[in-house]
Recover the amino acids of this structure.
């Protein structure tokens, strides 16, 4: 998992971003350096064992999940809910050349 360290630091200071993105793609997310760019915090979880991810930093957070795998998108969606996220939007998105095609989508309001 990459990009979560700054979020944990914020949370320990009593702060929280408006939203957190979890990216699950087989390329490095350019947004895992969000602290220096002032972007939406993005955590790359590609190739990570979802069942072993420590997602406690998502408690009471809005989370956006995007994965190239429908199965992993669904498992990440459930893991975010189990970690206590208050809102989760998740999608399975395939890149077809320059075009992104969305398959499965689900939204949870806790």
């Amino acid at each position: 998992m990459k990009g979560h360290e700054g979020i944990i630091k914020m949370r320990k200071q009593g702060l929280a971003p408006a939203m957190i993105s979890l990216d699950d793609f087989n390329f490095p997310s350019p947004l895992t350096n969000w602290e220096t760019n002032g972007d939406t915090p993005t955590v790359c979880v590609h190739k990570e064992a979802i069942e072993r991810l420590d997602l406690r930093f998502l408690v009471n957070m809005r989370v956006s999940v995007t994965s190239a795998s429908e199965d992993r998108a669904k498992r990440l969606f459930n893991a975010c809910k189990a970690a206590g996220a208050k809102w989760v939007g998740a999608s399975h998105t395939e890149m077809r050349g320059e075009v992104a095609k969305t398959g499965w989508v689900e939204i949870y309001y806790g």
